[in-house]
């Protein structure tokens, strides 16, 4: 039968308990006949880092790896004459790879599972993955903790760090031990770091070999053991001294731990502190007061966040939020250990019968079930997702929403008529989605409406349906409410936004509409079948986060609205007249330091621009820092016309008399900006040379950069050689490129 999400949900809800499955390649021997789906979201009976969890995602039943990433999803399900199920699975990054998940009629023979082979480059482990002690937790089912906190539904491109540097105390040592077992494809180097530690002059490997470093400052070193003497917190002066001293220690320890960041610009993630799970105030009246250790740790987290802002390429990891979401009772050790230890609970090493007792101490998990493995998996997933966000991997630039049964319950034409009251409720998920839209807008993500409906009817009833008035139709940068095919409307939205479908998420409750859209736009991401998942996926996914809010990000929605006005104006006059009336001005700014406020926008624009990008190269912070230090020139430019201020919309990477890379936002394509910029850049490079100079440029053709492939030829360059997708151009010293007359060069208003 055809794959149906609702059928799968019912099957998995009612039939998985106590069932066993065979699992393995479609064209090879089964790897196991003992695989089962545990009620806590874990794969049981079969141990491999690639198959660790299961859940039902936005659109599919999925099998997840130990990071919470999607490893397998079914494309079909069939039943045999006995009603037993067989799923055909694919690995999303390699959809040509097929595996089989086959329900067995009886319990399999008591034999060990077949060792996992090297399918898809699967990581090998010499021993089964360590699991937490079993525990009963009927509320923890469905989504695994990593998949819940850090959704993978919008991931398209897998990311695996090659080498990571870990710096920290015994908690970091635990991370390293677990990470090395779970992620053998990544190398982890560890430098112990406690109070007054001094890092080696150089890390274990060259700094450029690391994708990032993870730094954990131990809470005990910051607070010192003075805080064990709880009676002293009755003295307000003692509490103030603790905070002041702790902030000073954080400053010193952070500065020492950031040695490789300062020297090499190494991308750094700094762990926050876990707040004790119960108030340590001496009295109920003192909860949240100056003498409450919980409040003090929160102050320290706030101070750490402020200090991190002083360092380049550095981000805070909110570990306390992860522990709180999982449940600190399953993670933190302060029900046994002292408050300032701030680590993960484990069985005390002295309590295994070595010391005689009148009553033997039972295993810790019988009293305090632990979820250490879940916590460690979330810590890795947290930093992995932050790394993806910074690299702008699979970044979402726009979200397009349906209306009926997507932004509200029911159909506006049927369920919200005056004679059908009471109308469907708006509490619960509709309110959550309405707020979600505003937070997406705050990140510079464009939102649009694409609905088969009557526009006048929607406008008439909107204020009554969207109640309380969290959301207005005017909040959307583009609205397509008509009876045209949604594929046509989405194509128009992408054109007006100057983005490709691969940067878009389409949210619609109707599986037929989603299927039609994904069939037309293979790269678009479509969700919306389950409204309980929509908000979490859109707000918590790495692909909808941004590393920095630039001025351009904050104003993107308004700029797009003005661009639409500009395009409407273009249709009323010929091209020359239209360009002459734009009043376009352009200014340049040299980027000479990563500390310049415009630098984050330069990095963002370079790494997210696909269409007008002459090489497609992505740069990280360290590479650009080195490029500048070695004499490379980075020239940014800003554009304004009578419709709007576009902000920083282009970057050129220059070296001597060569244009290394040219990147420009598609928002200003068609205004002859690209030719003006080339003419001004050529003039600048020649002014810097003492003799007439040939200007050279190179271009690498990518699947997306068609709009810029002829830019050098249009500016008068001559193509000198071409090999595969690599092309080279030259502008002889005596040639002067055309400079469009309708654009004016202005001086920048910033430095």
Task: Explain this structure.
The chain has 751 residues and is an alpha/beta fold. The chain has four domains: 107 residues, Lipocalin (Beta Barrel), CATH 2.40.128; 228 residues, 3-Layer(aba) Sandwich (Rossmann fold); 149 residues, 3-Layer(aba) Sandwich (Rossmann fold); 178 residues, Gcn5-related N-acetyltransferase (GNAT) (Aminopeptidase), CATH 3.40.630.30. Helix content is 31%, strand content 20%. It contains 23 helices and 26 strands. Strands 3-2-1-8-7-6-5-4 form an eight-stranded antiparallel β-sheet. Strand 12, helix 7 and strand 13 form a beta-alpha-beta unit. Helix 3 packs across helix 10, helix 5 runs parallel beside helix 7 and helix 12 runs parallel beside helix 16. The N terminus is likely disordered.
- The helical percent reads 25-40%
Report, as a whole number of angstroms, the end-to-end distance.
64 Å
Query: What topology, given as strand order, has the largest sheet?
Result: 3-2-1-8-7-6-5-4
Q: What proportion strand?
A: 15-25%
GO molecular function: hydrolase activity, acting on ester bonds
Protein name: HAD-IIIC family phosphatase
Condensed summary:
The chain is built from 23 helices and 26 strands.
Short descriptors:
23 helices, 26 strands, hydrolase activity, acting on ester bonds, SGNH_hydro_sf, single chain, alpha/beta, Rossmann fold, HAD_sf, HAD-IIIC family phosphatase, FkbH_domain, Lipocalin, 4 domains, eight-stranded mixed beta sheet, 751 residues, eight-stranded antiparallel beta sheet, disordered N terminus, globular
């Amino acid at each position: 039968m055809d794959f149906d999400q609702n059928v799968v949900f019912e099957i998995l809800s009612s039939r998985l308990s106590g069932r066993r499955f065979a699992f393995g390649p479609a064209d090879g021997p089964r790897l196991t006949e003992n695989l089962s789906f545990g009620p806590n979201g874990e794969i049981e009976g079969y141990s491999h880092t690639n198959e660790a969890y299961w859940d039902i995602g936005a659109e599919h039943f999925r099998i997840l790896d130990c990071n919470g990433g999607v490893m397998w999803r079914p494309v079909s399900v069939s039943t045999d004459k006995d009603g037993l199920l067989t799923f055909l699975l694919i690995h999303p990054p390699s959809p040509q790879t097929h595996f089989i998940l086959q329900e067995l009629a009886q319990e399999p023979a008591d034999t060990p599972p077949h060792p996992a082979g090297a399918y898809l480059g699967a990581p090998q482990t010499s021993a089964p993955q360590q699991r937490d002690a079993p525990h009963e937790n009927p509320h923890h089912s469905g989504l695994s903790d990593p998949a819940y906190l850090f959704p993978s539904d919008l991931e398209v491109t897998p990311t695996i760090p090659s080498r990571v540097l870990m710096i920290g105390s015994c908690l970091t040592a635990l991370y390293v031990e677990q990470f090395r077992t779970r992620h053998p494809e990544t190398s982890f180097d560890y430098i112990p770091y406690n109070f007054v530690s001094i890092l080696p002059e150089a890390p274990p490997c060259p700094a450029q070999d690391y994708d990032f470093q993870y730094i954990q400052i131990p809470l005990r070193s910051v607070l010192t053991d003075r805080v064990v003497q709880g009676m002293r917190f009755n003295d307000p002066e003692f509490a103030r001294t603790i905070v002041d001293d702790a902030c000073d220690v954080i400053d010193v320890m952070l500065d020492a731990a950031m040695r490789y960041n300062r020297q090499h610009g190494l991308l750094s993630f700094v762990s926050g502190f876990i707040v004790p799970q119960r108030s340590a105030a001496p009295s109920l009246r003192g909860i949240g007061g100056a003498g409450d250790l919980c409040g003090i740790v929160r102050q320290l987290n706030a101070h750490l966040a402020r200090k991190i802002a002083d360092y380049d390429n550095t981000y805070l990891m909110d570990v306390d939020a992860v522990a709180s979401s999982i449940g600190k009772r399953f993670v933190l050790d302060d029900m046994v250990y002292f408050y300032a230890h701030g680590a993960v609970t484990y069985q005390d090493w002295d309590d295994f019968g070595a010391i005689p007792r009148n009553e033997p101490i039972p295993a810790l998990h019988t009293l305090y079930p632990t979820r250490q493995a879940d916590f460690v998996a979330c810590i890795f997933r947290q930093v992995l997702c932050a790394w993806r966000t910074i690299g702008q991997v699979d970044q979402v630039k726009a979200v397009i929403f349906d209306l009926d049964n997507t932004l509200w319950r029911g159909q506006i034409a049927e369920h919200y008529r005056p004679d059908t009251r009471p109308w469907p409720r708006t509490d619960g998920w509709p309110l959550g989605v309405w707020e979600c839209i505003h937070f997406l807008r705050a990140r510079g993500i464009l939102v649009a409406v694409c609905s088969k409906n009557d526009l006048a009817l929607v406008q008439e009833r909107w204020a009554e349906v969207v109640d309380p008035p969290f959301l207005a139709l005017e909040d959307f940068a583009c609205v397509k409410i008509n009876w045209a095919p949604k594929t046509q409307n989405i194509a128009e939205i992408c054109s007006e936004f100057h983005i490709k479908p691969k940067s878009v998420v389409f949210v619609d409750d109707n599986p037929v509409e989603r299927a039609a859209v994904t069939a037309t736009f293979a790269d678009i991401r479509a969700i919306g079948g389950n409204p309980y998942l929509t908000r979490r996926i859109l707000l918590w996914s790495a692909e909808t986060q941004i590393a920095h809010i630039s001025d351009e990000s904050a104003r993107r929605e308004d700029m797009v609205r003005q661009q639409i006005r500009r395009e409407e104006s273009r249709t009323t006059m010929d091209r020359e007249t239209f360009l002459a009336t734009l009043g376009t001005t352009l200014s340049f700014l040299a980027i000479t330091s990563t500390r310049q406020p415009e630098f984050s926008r330069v990095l963002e624009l370079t790494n997210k621009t696909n269409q007008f990008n002459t090489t497609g190269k992505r740069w990280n912070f360290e590479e650009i820092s080195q490029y500048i230090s070695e004499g490379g020139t980075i020239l940014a430019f800003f554009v304004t016309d009578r419709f709007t201020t576009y902000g920083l919309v282009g970057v050129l990477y220059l070296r001597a008399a060569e244009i290394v890379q040219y990147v420009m936002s598609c928002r200003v394509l068609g205004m002859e900006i690209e030719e003006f910029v080339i003419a001004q850049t050529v003039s600048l490079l020649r002014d810097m040379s003492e003799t007439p100079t040939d200007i050279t440029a190179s271009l690498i053709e990518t699947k997306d950069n068609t709009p810029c492939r002829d830019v050098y030829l249009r500016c008068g360059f001559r193509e000198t050689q071409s090999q595969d997708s690599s092309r080279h151009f030259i502008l002889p010293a005596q040639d002067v490129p055309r400079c469009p007359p309708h654009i004016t060069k202005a001086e920048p208003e910033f430095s």
